Amino acid sequence: MKLLRARGRKPFQDVSKHSDAAIMPGHAILAELDAEYPVSFSRKIVQQVIRGEWGCQGLLVTDDFTMGAACNRGLCDATVRALGARVDLLPIAFDQDKYFDAMHCAQQAAQCGALDLSMLERSSARRLQPFASQ
């Protein structure tokens, strides 16, 4: 874990502190931080580490949701967990029909209070912000 903090995270942490660059939290599991969920679905990692410790306020974009790491967990669960973790964009590239399923799950979760609407509004604002030129 010390090596990950010293080297593995450093480039991402530096970029997130000094720019509004988008970061892609992958579907890998960092067992030392969250043994149950991949980074892209982990509220603990996204909120405490990426958004908190690193101070990242830029866009967070997951890997494609048609990949096995997302689909094998269930598209609905993955969608709600990623949005709940404060990830901004969930690409669905190779099976566009899954987009409608994912949107339905997100809408249902928002309607029943499983998603924080103020957090979703902040996410929407990040998506609409133009990238700052460096």
Keywords:
134 residues, mainly alpha, 7 helices
How would you characterize this protein structure?
It is built from 7 helices and no strands. It has helices at 2-8, 10-18, 43-53, 68-71, 75-84, 97-111, 117-128. Helix 5 (75-84) crosses helix 6.
In percent, how much strand structure appears in the residues? under 5%
User: What is the helical fraction, as a range of percent?
Assistant: 40-55%
Please state the CA-atom Rg, rounded to the nearest Å: 15 Å
Order of helices and strands: HHHHHHH
The tally of helices reads: 7
SS elements, strand count: 0
SS-based class? mainly alpha
Poorly predicted ranges: none
User: What would the average pLDDT be, to the nearest integer?
Assistant: 82
Q: List the quaternary state of the chains.
A: single chain
Overall shape: it is: globular
Distance between the termini: 32 Å
Largest sheet: none
